[in-house]
Amino acid sequence: MIRVNLLPQKKRAERVAAVEPTGGQRWILVVLAVVLLEVIGFVWFHQTKVGELESWQKRNKAIEGDIAGIRALVTQHEQVKKDLALLKAREEAINKLETARTGPTAALLELSRLLTPGKGPTIDPDRYQAQTKNNPLQAINPAWDSRRLWVMTFKERERVVEITGLARDSTDVSELAYRLKASSYFYDVKLLPGKKDASTGTSVGMTSFGMQLKVRY
User: Fold this and answer.
1) In which band, very low, low, confident or very high, does the pLDDT at 52 lie, cut at 50, 70 and 90?
2) In the chain, what are the domain boundaries?
3) What's this model's pTM, rounded to 2 decimal places?
4) What percent helix, strand, coil does the chain show, rounded to 5?
């Protein structure tokens, strides 16, 4: 006779049945999982929208700053126009002064230096050296007495100058021509025909002369 003890097996089956979830428990787990996924999705969606909101807020602040700057410019437009007009007037005045400094006034001052004892032309050393190298006879004479020559007229038109005057003799006229050629202000110096002038009221006859030259300014 064989005996089979079924008591332990019965207890084991009861334990397995106790561990396995029931249908109601599975439904609760499914619901909890769905709720958890919804919570995670909501958090992600919320963070995304918060980031977009911050981005739009930054853009709005930048646009507001641009608008404020434009409004300030519009408000100051009339003042800016006045300031520009004032600056333009100052620039024109400065240009006029520069033109006067380098124009006919400067040319007359240079001529005055040419005829002042102990002074001479404004010389560009390199150009003067090349000029005298080609023709040594055109070198200026530092000891020349400029009181031997008088300039009577100085007429300038479109930067072409005509000079007339009186000199003791032709050497004085030549010295003036050399000085004009050496000057940085004058060029293309041409002598016009001269003649002895006995109508000066002195016993010594004078030589009248004329020159045509161009001026730089």
Assistant:
1) confident
2) 121-215
3) 0.52
4) 60, 20, 20
